[in-house]
């Protein structure tokens, strides 16, 4: 079994789509851990703010099979891939890390995912997996977040969206 770190985001009916995505992850995978949900500005274009979170899942799937499963989940939520790369999304789920795998050029799947440099991915990821080491940088996610330019920025945590299981 492998552990994958996922980035989840939506800016079209985001509460609905993120809740449904988290439920689907919990129905399919073991040991799902979900970060708090934060509101982040759109990156790469002018548009509505996104709600973003991170999740870890324990999976028996290969990285490509997991990516295919996640794309099917996005498609089930009306994800439109025909427009520009940076645009509104009903649901966007990306594999950020997959154990310590480094993939470059395996189709469109690249690990670790470049978007880990953005606050909307790194902040929630470091929250739930602070000791996970970036496989090429060799440093824990908490250290990457501590050095990030946006580390002092206060991003709104969406109230009433605590999807983390009660211990």
Produce a short descriptive summary.
This protein has 167 residues and is an alpha+beta fold. The protein contains four helices and seven strands.
Show the helix and strand layout:
Blueprint: E1 2-10, H1 14-28, E2 30-34, E3 38-40, E4 50-59, H2 63-76, E5 92-98, E6 103-106, E7 109-111, H3 119-128, H4 141-146
Antiparallel strand pairs: 1-4, 1-5, 2-4, 3-4, 6-7
Notes on the structure:
The protein has 167 residues and is an alpha+beta fold. The chain has a single domain (2-146), classed as Alpha-Beta Plaits, CATH 3.30.70. The chain is built from four helices and seven strands. The chain has helices at residues 14-28, 63-76, 119-128, 141-146; strands at 2-10, 30-34, 38-40, 50-59, 92-98, 103-106, 109-111. The strands form two sheets. Strands 1, 2, 3, 4 and 5 form a five-stranded antiparallel sheet that branches. Strands 6-7 form a two-stranded antiparallel ribbon. Strand 6 and strand 7 form a beta hairpin. It is globular and about 35 Å long. It starts with a strand and ends in a 21-residue tail after the last helix. The mean pLDDT is 90.
Question: Which key features would you list for this structure?
Answer:
167 residues; Alpha-Beta Plaits; 5-stranded antiparallel sheet; 4 helices; 7 strands; 25% strand
Distance between the termini: 23 Å
CATH superfamily: 7,8-Dihydro-6-hydroxymethylpterin-pyrophosphokinase HPPK
* Total domain modules: 1
- Unreliably modeled segments: none
